[in-house]
Amino acid sequence: MTPRFAIVGTGRMAATMMATLGRANVDVVAVASRDRGRAERFALGNNSIQAVGEWASIVGRPDVDVVYIATHPASHARIAVAALENGKAVLCEKPFATNLVDALRVAETAQRSGCLCMEALWTAFLPASRKFFQLLDEGACGVPKHLTASFGFPESETAQCRSLEAGGVLLDRAVYLAAFARQSLGPVAKVTAELDIGADGIEQSASLTLLHKNGAQSQLAASFLVELSNTAVLAGTAGSATLKRPLLGSERIVLRKVSPTPATLARRPSHGTSQWLRQIPNLRRLKRLWDERSEHLSYGADRYRPQLDHFLDLYRSGERESPILPLSLSLDTLAILAQAQEALAIHPLGKVSA
Predict the structure, then answer these.
(1) Which domains does the chain have, with CATH numbers?
(2) What is the pLDDT of residues 49-65, one digit of tens each?
(3) pTM across the whole model
């Protein structure tokens, strides 16, 4: 059975998910907004959707199976808890809470209610992302040791204001990177942060260094101000795996294999054939092509569809959590960002370290 959805929120992400639900032939029975007029405009042209002014009026409706939350992040946890307490499954936009106390309330309520609850971190479900983690699990890079990842591009003043309202660059953009690092290299023991803080006191760009419990390290950068590389590279003892740009929505992976060179050979100067080969540009190019394996993995016409299909499969099979993005991973991600935010609270001006 395909569940019936109610949407809380009428912004850009709500409209995007509405289109994805339509392509998947999922019924949306209600939409809620504090501004009833906005809800009515959102539902315009679809007589099956009832527009309401308050989200509280839809979480208890018997004709609603799933509540999709796409409001201001500060209200995510409150709505999620209410929906779960009313026996509804929840798909909640990132971040599913803005602090650890609220996040734990959501997780505990989900466990107590027995209802499916998942954060809508859509990048985790893309085919290229799934392949990336499969390669790591198979040991294609050897023992993973180091990750670099970035997500940043300049925004218009209007868009930047919306992002700042969503919690600054940490909760709006670094959340993707922190989750990716946690999935790639495991639990984190220590977080160091450098934050570029605007005149309004909210971070506009951030650089995070994560020391993972297994000794590996992640270096993450997020920004509202500048164009970053928008890639992810994980290096291991036997090679590296790269998610090509744009990292959010990547469809191409490059796997590069390397053979460790004994220290004694590394100190010797190049002689003979090896040195001769290095002098021929086309042979150098062929060697690079030989060393690298590139794979294109498309997400199709809708980059949010893999996430929705995964959620629907979980719902139909009676699962309570996603094995790809369990609530424990969402909690760990928020804990990473909370450690970075502690630096902001202690030293609210300029670049700081935590």
Answers:
(1) 5-120 (3.40.50.720), 126-301+334-346 (3.30.360.10)
(2) 999 999 999 999 999 99
(3) 0.89
